[in-house]
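agent: user wants the full assembly modeled, not chains individually. Plan: 1) parse entity lines 2) check alphabet per entity 3) run joint structure prediction 4) return tokens. Steps 1-2 passed, two entities, 819 residues total. Proceeding.
--- entities ---
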Amino acid sequence: MRDSDRKQYAARLTQRLVRREISRRDFMRSAAALGLGAGAFGLGMTRPFGGNPYAMADNHAADLRPSDEVLAWVKEVSAPFKGTTLKLATESTPPSNAINSQLKQYFEEASGMTVEIEVLPLEQVLQKLTLDIASQLGTYDLYYIDQSWAAFTARDVFDPREQLADKPDLAMPDWKVEDFLPALVDGIARYEDRLVGVPYDIPIFIFMYRKDIYEKMGFEAPATLEEYYTQAKAITDEMGPDMYGATGQMKSGHYSLECDWTAWLWGHGGSIFNSDGKFSGNDAEGLEAMEYWTKLKETMPPGVTGWTWDGQGQSIAQGVAATMMSWGEFFPYFDDPEATKVSGLMEAVRCPAPTKALRTVDQTGYGEIPGVGHQGGSSLAVSRNSKNPDPAWIFMQWATSYDTQVLITALGGGTGPTRTAVYDDPRIIANNRVGPGTTRHLNVVRETIANDMGSEPDLPAWAELANDTIPVRLGKYFAGEYGSAKEAMDDIAQAADAVVEG
Amino acid sequence: MTETATDPLSRDRSSPPVAAPRPAFRGLRRLVSWDGPMPWLAPLIALLIVFTIYPLFYNIWLSFHEYAPFKRRLEYVGFQNWATLWEDARFWGSLSVTFTYFVVVLAIEVVLGMMIALLLDSDEPGFGVLRALLTLTLVIPPAITGMMFLLIQDPEFGVLTYVLEGIGVLDGQSPILATSSTALLGVMLADVWQWTPFMVLIFLAGLRSLPQEPYEAAMLDGASALQTFQRITLPLMSKVIAVAVLIRGIDVFRMFDYVFVMTSGGPGTSTYVLSLYAWQQTFSFIKWGYGATLSLVSLAIILVIANLFIKLAKVRW
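--- prediction returned ---
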């Protein structure tokens, strides 16, 4: 059997186990026949949100365990650092969950180090990170850096290019920054001339819709934002309140609300900042976007103003809403028949086209990149305050290596890889089918990254703007506390410019 | 000067000592001696210094400084943080929300607590179990209570939403926690549910220790239940009520967990209380100086209210 066939067979086998189409005994037998070794996989299933459809046993499968070469490298370079404990605080994302629950054991075994990963809500990660930076205590050796924090953390982390140059003896063979998707390196990990780590995960807005409802309504996937609104309204009018045409993540004061806003803003030819560095969400395009969003909200469930991304995902999963333009990493979860009511019913396509031409980067401020596919990616970097920068650098290379990314994508529930080649790995392609941990949306993710990706601006004040100034006032707008969208956006403009000016 | 006067060994023992400790020093010596209270209080005083007095003075010092992120150090800013306070609309808004929350929640908990305490003030079988059950809400972490009430008030499947829509109070388009006019009430509900039993327990303890004679006299005089409550129970319970209000009032003013979990201060700023604002400035935006200033204002307000209340209610400790 050829290697690629063996890998595909292993993936299919795993899929059948996950779907419970075969018993664990049969799986073991087949796995043994395939040379995977008895006891491979199968110590029960853990399915927290974000993936992990498979749980691997101690006796590792050949294809869904780190390669021997990688582990040999880890063992070799980690020898002087045995006994070191590394700490990382991260959001609960598929890569972090996969590494924490299933993969880090291999690293620990090979390196003799211990890796402590705190999985927290995003706002708590920000809190811990900012405190660690301000106090310079070095509590965390590695930082999980949301792209909106890149600017203010840039000086507190090592640029991986410098680490590669300064520590050639610790460099993982073939680990290159150039192998990451260039758009992600620029959009997530670059601040001015520095790299703030390397892209670690890439949640990005794609369009997901209920195929069955669209067929029933006689719709095709929307080509433009206007068409999307028309469809969403028609579904809500026809099927509401049991089914709504759209949904959102619109909790007042939460970062998620800002994420939704940018997609509509960029999609209407607007931008957060103009080339003078002034807030421009209150210009003509910004107000058009607000008008669109306000009417689209009428097609959403009434609870949408209390939801972050979790509530939004649940509204699809529980069959309350028919479409969402949101994070692609939800998709594998929707395909899980044990977790949702919509397994096999969802389809993923690129976001509808903008109503007007997107602004260019030159027309915006602080490196903002307009695009309907809002990206919320994060990077992984070694803290300059770490007391163990070298061991942390080894872990970082391993966690973001090609081999680990394939495993993360397979085990983590089909999250979007940040390395180009991972999309074409046979083990990833083999999961392109309906079921938990599916990767059938990944081509859409890759196309969106290449064509539609929108990135927030990079400036030190952005964390405050994105997590407070903008979403608090947008929340007030949707709660009816402003007389008009213009009044709301003018207020945001005034507050945002004041924050930027310091 | 004679030698006798300078040489203590040659001093006439019948004469009074030259430097006999004055009464104040005698008191101090007794205080710190092993027979005095100080050795026993020392650990507590040390804890107070480390965890209360030092942080308080550090906070005061901090309020005249601000963290400069690009220089990675605290810089002296004089009264800038205090001046910012007066111009900060968010501060005044959060103060207003805090006061509204404080007054409404405290009033409801006192009235409801007293009513339930009066109902449970009985020796009939089963009442002891009911009183014991009251402690259950108190052991639940407030964050969990917040999460419970978030679900109870969920616009899609929340039982409270369902009931209120059923009786026509809600229209189905205005979620409780996402509507400015009702969000604070939604948060208050969690507080009232969790902490009213605390008031009940304190009031019950007071009620059950009241003397019976005034009630017997009132009964002989033909006083109604309401008159008995107004003229006897309330005056006799005034000190207990005052202490309960004081303890609970300080807690209510500092409330954080419920808004953090349920609304994050929204929609807009309609549930943004002072403690949440101080937390956000301190920990999310690393404006340590301004966060310290907000905390000190909160502390000052609590101290003023508490002392005013102690004076007006004539609470004796």
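agent: reporting back. Confidence is low (pLDDT under 50) at residues 31-62 of chain A. Chain A has three domains: 1-42, 47-202+378-429, 205-374+458-501.
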